[in-house]
Amino acid sequence: MNQIPTRTYRTLARRALQAAALITILASVGGCAHTAPSTTLYERLGGENGIESIVERFLYRVADDPELVGFFANTNIDHLAGSLANQFCAVSNGPCRYEGPPMERAHQNMGITDAHFNQLVEHLDAALREENIALGARNEFLGRLAPMHADVMRYQ
Amino acid sequence: MFRFTATPFIARTLCRLAGIACVGLVVASSGAQAGSRIMSTGGVSAIEGAAGGGLSPWAVLSSTASDEELGATAFASRAWLDDYRLTVGGASLNVYDQVELSYARQRVELQTLGGELEQDIFGAKVRLFGDVLYHPLGIWSAGVLHKRLVDGATPTALGADHTEGTDAYLSASKLLFAAAAGRNVMLNATLRNTEANQGGLLGFGGDQGGREWVAEASVGVFLTPHWIVGTEYRQKPDNLSVGREEDWQSLYSAYFFSKHVSLTAAWLDLGDIAGLASQRGSYLSLQAAF
Ligand code: HEM
Ligand code: HEM
Any alpha helices (H) in B136-283, and if so which ranges? Predict the structure, then answer.
């Protein structure tokens, strides 16, 4: 009779220790997210020229994608390219300020689905790779855009 | 007694689900088009059939199906331990990235003494909210794994109360962008309510206890967008007095050749199993996704 509670106790203690260890590991990994690199992300994306090339490659890829190009049928592409470059520059700590409309307004009622969103992300990542942006900078840049998903999708 | 009246109904329902999954697989593979979700966001197939790591289900849903797509996976896995060999085959269906249905057949062979145990696992997972990439809290899902031993004689003789049982779990997964040396880090935590002994292969419940909550977690680093290495930990119940049951852990490496094919290799430490001490060994798993 005595044996069962003791064993349960030990199991519980072991559980608690393990849980604490796991949480510590997870938390410390999470903490690494904020170590600042020596150069800004803007520089690692190639500065003003780099970002312009990225935007251009990105838009050409989108224009070639039959499932996405329709969204841009009534868009002034020059304006879009300028606005995107400005936003990318601002998001990567460059010397710019994004002056376009907020993301939820810029995309309202377009009927964008998660599938479209993912496709667009793949084109952007491909454009970054074609511009030989290093993996670390690519991950960081995509990581800064990813949370905008909620705003872009708010009024679909 | 409830068990006996409910069994045929449950069996019929679950077989129908497995049938649907199977049809889905054929339909999806004839299209042979990848889903639009980003590669590797479907994880790999855990040994219980659900999308996850190797040992533990994750909150992500299988394949790369997105909100307007169907996806399917099929997988085969094998673990070579000191005294046992585990073989698993299964499939899953992802419906609109909201619901995942899965089936797995596990067989464990006792290498040294002879004999084998088999079970079927029918799984369903529902995405509660969030997104592994885009939501600050990641993706959260809840699931069940209904397990049925093919022949429960040995587990019953060892003291197990039941030859079928159902695990329920809540799981959260999150990708942290550029979190370690510029590399993306995958985090997963799962809370599981279970009475399964050694995952169910040794039956359910026993003289030392029954249902309880256990925690599972994993951390992985995407060295490249194709290649993740990491570790998993899975707590286990300890219900049978004939043999102590210990927690499971693994070190894994999964390579995504494309959205369609991944190969996982792992080193496992499954602890004591049914009186045989310290079962360690290697694991290979091949997954195809459509
Ligand atoms: C210098 C680059 C570009 C050139 C020379 C170009 C040229 C053209 C031409 C000639 C058409 C008419 C095709 C037709 O009606 O059969 C067209 C249509 C279109 N292009 Fe471009 N394009 C360029 C860049 C882009 C970019 C970057 C985008 C979007 C991201 C874009 C989006 C579209 C769209 C939405 C249409 C209309 C399709 C339709 O109305 O059905 N284009 N383009
Ligand atoms: C994180 C993801 C996204 C970001 C950061 C983003 C950013 C932007 C920016 C900065 C603009 C210009 C706004 C302006 O100055 O007027 C814009 C416009 C636009 N975006 Fe996005 N976008 C995202 C996702 C998407 C998706 C998934 C689609 C559809 C597939 C899309 C379609 C459009 C269209 C069609 C316009 C032009 C709207 C117009 O003609 O006024 N965007 N986006």
Answer: 153-157
